[in-house]
Amino acid sequence: MIELREVTKEYSKGIAALNDVSLKIEQGEFVFVVGDSGAGKSTFIRLLMKELEPTSGKIQVMGQDLGKLSHKQVPFYRRKIGVVFQDFRLLKDRNVYENIAFALRVTETPSRVIKKKVPAALSLVGLAQKYKSFPKELSGGEQQRVAIARAIVNEPSILIADEPTGNLDPANSWEIMKLLEEANQRGTTVIVVTHNHEIVKMMNKRVITMKQGNVVSDEKKVGV
Amino acid sequence: MRFGTVKYSVKQGVKNISRNRMFSIASIATMAACIFLFGIFFAIITNFNYIVEKAEEGVAIVVYFDAEATDERVEEIGEEIEKYEGVAEVKYVSAEEALDSFLSDYLEGNEELAEGFKDDNPLVDSDNYEVYLESVEQQEEVVEFVEGLEGVRKVSKSDVVAKTLENFNVLLAYISGAIILILLVVAIFLISNTVSMGITIRREEIAIMKYIGAKDSFVRAPFIIEGILIGVAGAAIPLVILYFAYGKAINAIMSKFSVLNSILDFLPVGEVYKTLLPVGLALGVGIGFIGSFFTIRKHLKA
Ligand SMILES: Nc1ncnc2c1ncn2[C@@H]1O[C@H](COP(=O)(O)OP(=O)(O)O)[C@@H](O)[C@H]1O
Ligand SMILES: [Mg+2]
């Protein structure tokens, strides 16, 4: 599904944010990526989104060599990936419904499909009642649930979350993890970057640990 | 592009304008000033052209003959002039006709005095050819040719007025061209700035759009629509004002300078707008499109 081969990313010459990283993530996996701040986790994700080009090495996602993807193909590639950020990144001038519909409009989905898919995504994250609310009227946890609904409404093959619980209290963090796990159970490959060791321990999934641009450990599930 | 997408882009474009109200108004006002001036110059120039055209119809050279020229020679001269390129018509005017026309021009209302001249024609040697030209520009050349003909005593060129009008018209076209060019640049600059502001305000939204998988065209469409809408508004406002002002202006000129009524003949507003309306709107749309298209391209390269 996702394969990095000897990938190095240098923002400025000689300083590698990602240093000769090779790894493989299979379809349907749920993977945590952990590591100190500055370890290169976000760089990894931005490379997967083809927001950045690797300085060297090869990245393959869903059978496509990202290096060979033309500028015109990038949007279509990104439509197969859902992303969630620490700071939610909702549109403040639009209500919950419009925020989720936005992802479908951007991909030029017909209106009648939008009308069906938005409520469905909202009920998946448990916010069916709040479709008219604006982001500032919602708690952090609710905002992140809207962001997840927006990320999954296009039914992506891969769901990526960069510190999705970084701004949330433990209870809300658990809610978000549950939603990500449910998406994984529906068949989506999920990659979660997090600092929250407690959650990582409890969830019992594969954990990739990074340090200064290197993968220092990659532990599959540790028994049950 | 889907209809839903077009609708969405238009809605966002309108939203850009209202969010960014001060800049949008400034852009529309500049555009309006630009198109307004263009409209005024256009109306003046088309009317001048029309007047010059009319004046040129009356442009004639008058050819007088040597006293000893025979009737045959006079006829030959007429034929030679007629064959010359650029000559529209050659008309023979006898001395009697010349006098009649002179008397009716200058002694109108003084019929008794006029009668007195009839018996003793002072214009006895003034039978002549009136030579009408296709355009005033050929006048000099034709005059030179006719002066070289044997048996021609004198050639009088007429209508310095037509020539002056034409020169004035060219000058006016240059001045208006320069003013309009400057205003166009200012208008494009302002629209570009307005769109830049909009892009800055929407930077985060654009980033999200790109993450979600928006094509470049989808990201750009609202801004280009914003530019075009500003352009259309900036063109429509002055065109409507000019439409109503035109008739009023002509009435004012006519009543102030009633002496000119016989010389000046203005085009009706519909005639002027046949060209001005599509050109003005195209200018507005064009400026709006150019101003926004290149700005958004510059900002959203990556
Ligand atoms: N846009 C950038 N320009 C230059 N250096 C950057 C940029 N983004 C990240 N870095 C550097 O790359 C390294 C990895 O950063 P990042 O991938 O954001 O780490 P993490 O997400 O694990 O905190 C850090 O040393 C950071 O300073
Ligand atoms: Mg990070």
Question: What does this entry show, briefly?
Answer:
Chain A is α/β, with parallel strands linked by helices. Chain A has helices at 41-48, 74-78, 96-106, 111-124, 140-152, 170-185, 197-203, and strands spanning 2-12, 15-25, 30-35, 56-61, 64-65, 81-85, 158-162, 189-193, 206-211, 214-219. The two termini of chain A are 25 Å apart.
N- to C-terminal separation of chain A? Answer: 25 Å
Shape of chain A: globular
The H-and-E topology of chain A, N to C, reads as: EEEHEEHEHHHEHEHEE
Number of helices of chain B: 10
Number of E-state strands of chain B: 4
Radius of gyration of chain B: 31 Å
- Give the termini separation of chain B: 22 Å
Helix content of chain B: over 70%
For the biggest sheet of chain A, the summary is: 6 strands, mixed
- Derived from helix and strand composition plus strand pairing, the structural class of chain B reads alpha+beta
Give the helices and strands, then pairings.
The complex is a heterodimer of chains A (224) and B (302).
Chain A: E1 2-12, E2 15-25, E3 30-35, H1 41-48, E4 56-61, E5 64-65, H2 74-78, E6 81-85, H3 96-106, H4 111-124, H5 140-152, E7 158-162, H6 170-185, E8 189-193, H7 197-203, E9 206-211, E10 214-219
Helix pairs in contact in A: 3-4, 3-5, 4-5, 5-6
Chain B: H1 3-19, H2 21-57, E1 60-65, H3 71-83, E2 87-93, H4 95-106, H5 111-119, E3 128-133, H6 139-147, E4 152-157, H7 160-201, H8 203-212, H9 216-256, H10 269-299
Antiparallel strand pairs in B: 1-3, 1-4, 2-3
Helix pairs in contact in B: 1-9, 2-7, 2-9, 2-10, 7-9, 7-10, 9-10
Bound molecules: adenosine-5'-diphosphate and magnesium ion (MG).
Magnesium ion (MG) binds next to α1 of chain A.
